Amino acid sequence: MAKEKTIHTCTECGGTSPRWLGKCPHCGAWNTLIESVAESDAPGKNRYSGARHAGLAAAQPVTPLSAIEATDIARTPSGLDELDRVLGGGIVEGGVVLIGGDPGIGKSTLLLQALDAYQRAGLPTLYVTGEESGAQVALRSRRLGLEGSQVNVLAEIQLEKILATIEATQPAVAVIDSIQTVYSEQLTSAPGSVAQVRECAAHLTRTAKATGVAIVLVGHVTKEGALAGPRVLEHMVDTVLYFEGDTHSSFRLVRAIKNRFGAVNEIGVFAMTEKGLKGVANPSAIFLSQHSEPVPGSCVLVTLEGTRPLLVEIQALVDGGGPSPRRLSVGLERDRLAMLLAVLNRHAGVACADQDVFVNAVGGVRISEPAADLAVMLAITSSLRGKPLPKGFLAFGEVGLAGEVRPAPRGQERLKEAAKLGFRVAVVPKANAPKKPIEGLTIHAVERVEEAMQVVRGLV
Ligand SMILES: Nc1ncnc2c1ncn2[C@@H]1O[C@H](COP(=O)(O)OP(=O)(O)OP(=O)(O)O)[C@@H](O)[C@H]1O
Ligand SMILES: [Mg+2]
């Protein structure tokens, strides 16, 4: 392939420069020039050519929406139920999935298992490994009990060779493990750089759309937990999945945060075993830690992840701090924690201003739902007072700045699941109180935070 010219584009002003410069010659911003492939003079030679010749191009015929046949998207399930669930039923022809997660969480394991399942179902597959050698992949497949696997493996990191292989072998599903290791000859920057990742992902996406091959890109995550590389990566692909979970526990969650072909916020739950990742069909109780007796600072909530309720234990520790007390939260938003502490202080008279406050969602699960608010507040109060909440207690509900407790969606379902797991007392928002009593569960409906505190004081 002929080497195409590269230019450097400023991310601030869009100005270009033939050379990389520390300072943009147009707007003067520092470190904003990013390498990309230059526009080609030959029409159709690269993806920028359309834009360049837009003014000169002949008008194209357009079609009214009603005249376009809406064909159902054909999904191919992998047979790994939990993975299919987050994908919205299975992979889609020409669909591009980006899957991110911490190192060692199980990305390669899950995808190898999925490819093997597809291959066994008669679909040709391709596993492109840039991080491990073919022998390492073979070793993993042996550990996973995938003897005799017919998955095709390509140990390669050069984009042009990978694209040629995909086009020549026409697999139904191809996995690129990982996008950060792939580099294009067209660019001089190092593999993993913003320019390389963006360019390679764009080429792979175009190939997926042109050939109908479903492509899964594995992405590294930064220390903060976001996908490494350019933010645009998430916009380019059809589906973005995140692996979550504590590498010390065996449970792993795969969450869809974007899906052009299905619902988001659906989660797949897996358990890491010696034989790889096994789906957990009934995950509601896996994030409860096992205390034989209730302990201070612990409160259980029911969160709704996708279509299934999950019971998660929130732990809080409030401890004597110094002049600048720390607020730390794992699995919950820190800003939200600061807000809840302020509401606690103002509306419930619970002051933690001079205390360190640590909050943790057990099992490495991330809770983005505001319905966790009430449980977080009760856990903090329980830790501060050193008094455990009663056995079999749970709470959920969003808390507003005025101290009001707002309802959570699908409250009945949450309560029923809790009752099924043996929970006996619940504090919930008034609007979530069921009309008919739920067997075995005493429900206290509250409208305000201070009311919730009062109820709890009466219970312990
Ligand atoms: N014999 C074993 N028994 C149980 N679990 C194992 C065994 N060997 C490996 N594992 C698990 O598999 C994980 C490695 O998974 P995998 O290589 O798929 O992760 P990854 O997300 O692809 O990591 P990376 O980002 O480094 O590529 C280990 O962290 C460990 O939890
Ligand atoms: Mg890996």
From TrEMBL:
Alphabetical keyword list: ATP-binding, DNA damage, DNA repair, DNA-binding, Hydrolase, Metal-binding, Nucleotide-binding, Stress response, Zinc, Zinc-finger
Pfam families for this protein: AAA_25 (PF13481), Lon_C (PF05362), Zn_ribbon_LapB (PF18073)
Region named Lon-protease-like: 356-460
Keyword match Amino-acid biosynthesis: no
Protein name: DNA repair protein RadA
Top-level taxonomic group: Bacteria
Domain RecA family profile: residue ranges: 72-221
InterPro entries reported for this sequence: AAA+_ATPase, DNA_repair_RadA, Lon_proteolytic, P-loop_NTPase, RecA_ATP-bd, Ribosomal_Su5_D2-typ_SF, Ribsml_uS5_D2-typ_fold_subgr, Rubredoxin_2
